[in-house]
Amino acid sequence: MSTTEELLxxxxxxxxxxxxxxxxxxxxxxxxxxxxxxxxxxxxYLDAYNNVPHVGHCHPHVVEAISRQAAILNTHTRYLHEGxxxxxxxxxxxxxxxxxxxxxxxxxxxxxxxxxxxxxxCTGHRGIICTKFAYHGNTTAVAQISTVFxxxxxxxxxxxxxxxxxxxxxxxxxxxxxxxxxxxxxIEAACVSLRExxxxxxxxxxxxxxxxxxxxxLTPPYMAEAAAIVRRAGGLYIADxxxxxxxxxxxxxxxxxxxxxxxxxxxxGKPMANGHPVxxxxxxxxxxxxxxxxxxxxxxxxxxxxxxxxxxxVLDVIxxxxxxxxxxxxxxxxxxxxxxxxxxxxxxxxxxxxxxFFGAELVTDRRSKSPATAxxxxxVNAMRDRGILLSRIGVHDNVLKIRPxxxxxxxxxxxxxxxxxxxxxxx
Length: 427
Ligand SMILES: Cc1ncc(COP(=O)(O)O)c(C=O)c1O
Description:
This protein is of the alpha/beta class. Helix content is 37%, strand content 18%. It is built from 12 helices and 16 strands. The strands form 3 sheets. A 7-stranded mixed sheet has the order 4-10-9-8-7-5-6, sandwiched between helices. Strands 11, 12, 13, 15 and 16 form a 5-stranded antiparallel sheet that branches. The protein is globular. The two termini are 36 Å apart. The chain binds pyridoxal-5'-phosphate. Pyridoxal-5'-phosphate binds next to α4.
């Protein structure tokens, strides 16, 4: 077996240096179990970052479901199979009643691609409103709204990226930001400008926890008002649940449910099958029906029997192990612990999050709120060196991103917090 250094060199040679890796010292992982990961040297890490292994790394119930179905049959979706129907029924039953039809695909990017096409085909308009510093995926159409990595080809005339609403900063603070009320004004302005340039408004598409934008907490009624503005302009509300979905935010199963407005289309991905590539779109019946009548959409791997067995097993575990309740309880506990750290460390300017998706915004000065970007990077690397995995997000890359697998316990939170306390003391 190659050493970590050799593997890194081989990777650069064959995958190139553009293929991103986490941390100054990249990790070479060989095994996972629950909330734990092991590297090639046998060192154990607490995973406080990964949402793909939603119910825990290598959960035996999911592993068993995948291997059982793989040994029986795996085909595509052009044959009748109980698995996809049962899963789609179970998935849609988790939504508000008007969101009653499903489509399955393989990646979050594909799910958002379907949602954009559905919005365009069903409204007859082209304009899409998204946020700055958002990430929604990697296809040509979706890259146009993944504004955190501006597309080299530039933005089309149908794209309007608005600054995300901010619960911590406003326009007077260092780095500037939009209050929720100003955010609504910018959505209104985007609708006007899309109508004026002839694109019309097809949809607004937002990550319902604004993950990449830095986890700003938006409270009701702002999302409902944004949706109303867009709907008045003839557009739809698309909710991207790739990061917050499947109970992660604790009090609700879906991120959009925090806002008191039901979307027209919801997209899902990452946590859906614990690492097996499954994604989905759930939409209002009339939209899904019209789309199907106008577009022949077929996805070879999407919704195959093995994928559906994996996705179904994930729902079993969420329910049997009461993981949404765990996210609510442990998330509140960890957030309170972060608040206590904020009382000790001036570098923590703000603490926020929902359930098992939370973070701390680091600043060099609490009054001006100037972002502690370099310090945040140092904290993430120092935590990794001490065996805790997390990351950073936000417009200024200064928000610690903590989003562990759902079985994360209070004991795990204690280890995370005491290590962070230590790291911040020596910053
Ligand atoms: C909010 C959000 N939407 C969509 C995607 C795209 O998902 P995928 O990488 O599975 O294509 C991501 C991936 O990070 C994401 O975070």
